[in-house]
Recover the amino acids of this structure.
């Protein structure tokens, strides 16, 4: 029961923060409400008994990506101009409503298979076993390392003073 | 009615649609990138919900979320580098003024 109340609270706040990202005129306030949305998503992971993912979400999204976005906003001076919508605002709104309608219709009318087993808690040892253990996801982990190295080099090459 | 898989999936669909609207309707490239991050987060919620309710002991969805987060971080780093490079040469981040390759 407490989990239900927590879910509704988190869902309301996350949808409100997401709407604020889209609707606020001020770019900086939009970035701050994006940070709030990331934090609330970490709470949603906790209600889904994914404790490691909640920590990762706070570390990477709130700690890393949010800082990057705020820095980018501060370096570009478009902050005074606000975040105006382009000519496609009304078609985009209709498309988004259609997207939501179609997805929810499909979700509600699909007979999902719900497992009655209780989830693994804590998830960190099980996730480590999945990622690094035998028959796990070790190749994608290595590819992710190569990807991060490539991103590091690419970002440095793009931002270097000519 | 207690909260189940459908609730999480509809929350995920709502967040995805909001991000979709923002990515289509906004002029500022940084706002568009923020909306894309919002959409990625919505997908992650759906993954975590499926992992919790369909395969609660296998944790496959959570492994996928870790890789999605890695790719999202990579995307935002390179994307912001490109946007700031464009800003440095053209003094704007508005997408309808970045028309160098427009035919």
């Amino acid at each position: 029961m407490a989990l239900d109340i927590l879910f509704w609270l988190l869902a309301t706040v996350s949808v409100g923060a997401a709407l604020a990202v889209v609707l606020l005129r001020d770019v900086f306030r939009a970035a701050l409400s994006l940070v709030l949305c990331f934090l609330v998503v970490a709470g949603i992971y906790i209600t889904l008994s994914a404790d490691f993912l909640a920590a990762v979400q706070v570390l990477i999204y709130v700690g890393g990506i949010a800082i990057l976005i705020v820095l980018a906003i501060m370096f570009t001076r478009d902050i005074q101009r606000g975040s105006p919508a382009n000519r496609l605002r009304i078609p985009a709104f209709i498309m988004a409503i259609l997207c939501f309608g179609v997805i929810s219709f499909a979700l509600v009318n699909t007979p999902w298979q719900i497992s009655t087993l209780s989830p693994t808690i804590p998830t960190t040892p099980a996730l480590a076993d999945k990622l690094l253990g035998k028959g796990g996801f070790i190749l994608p982990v290595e590819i992710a390392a190569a990807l991060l190295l490539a991103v590091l080099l690419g970002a440095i090459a793009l931002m270097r003073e000519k | 009615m207690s909260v189940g898989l459908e609730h999480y999936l509809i929350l995920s669909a709502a967040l995805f649609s909001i991000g979709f609207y923002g990515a289509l309707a906004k002029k500022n490239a940084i706002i568009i990138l923020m909306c894309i991050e919002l959409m990625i987060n919505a997908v992650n919620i759906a993954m975590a919900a499926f992992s919790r309710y369909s395969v609660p002991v296998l944790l496959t969805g959570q492994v996928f979320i870790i890789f999605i987060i890695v790719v999202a971080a990579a995307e935002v780093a390179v994307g912001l580098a490109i946007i700031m490079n464009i800003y440095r040469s053209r003094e704007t981040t508005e997408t309808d003024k970045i028309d160098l390759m427009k035919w």
